[in-house]
Amino acid sequence: MQTTNSTEQQIIDAARKIFMHKGFSGARMQDIADEAGINKAMLHYYYRSKDKLFDMVFNEAVEKLLSRVSAVFTADLLLEDKIQGVIGSYISSIAENPYLPLFIMNEINQDPDRIIDRFVNTPSFPNIQEFMMMLNAEMDKGTIRRVDPVQLMISIVAMCVFPFIAKPLLKAVFKIGDPAFAQFIEERKAFVSSFVLSALRP
Description:
Layout: H1 4-26, H2 29-36, H3 40-46, H4 50-74, H5 79-96, H6 100-110, H7 112-120, H8 128-141, H9 149-165, H10 167-173, H11 178-200
Helix pairs in contact: 1-2, 1-4, 1-6, 2-3, 4-5, 5-9, 5-11, 6-7, 9-11
């Protein structure tokens, strides 16, 4: 007989899979119950609403992603090491949950307030303003060339996220199989870091 913990974990795992593939609006409690291998009544016994399950799955995924990045943001590191650390942590976290970027984009289009509130108000949300102040300070000292910090931040995120969003297209265009794509993602950490740091040199 299954324990409560194992049943709950089955439900969470199933909900994660369904939400990541169908989004909040497209997912049904019956889909989650079927994926978990339980009946709908048992699902409602543990989790009374789709909202509660969604919050749990989304918060867990975002917390893992942001906590790693935030740890680098708050670390006592030189700017170059901090940029490399943020890029490496971001790509590694997404690689463990590759459906997350597309899922977030889809949910932003469906219900932006729901996602923005949960994303920005996550306890581990990085202190971006402090990092931008560090960038401005280095620009003032002349150690890096002057760039718009917001443009830089958006460019870093885009370079990290795009390969995951466009994975099927990239694999088809460049004839990349799954093992090679995994290697490509690992190598991208160094490539993006080098690209950004080269662009910042005065």
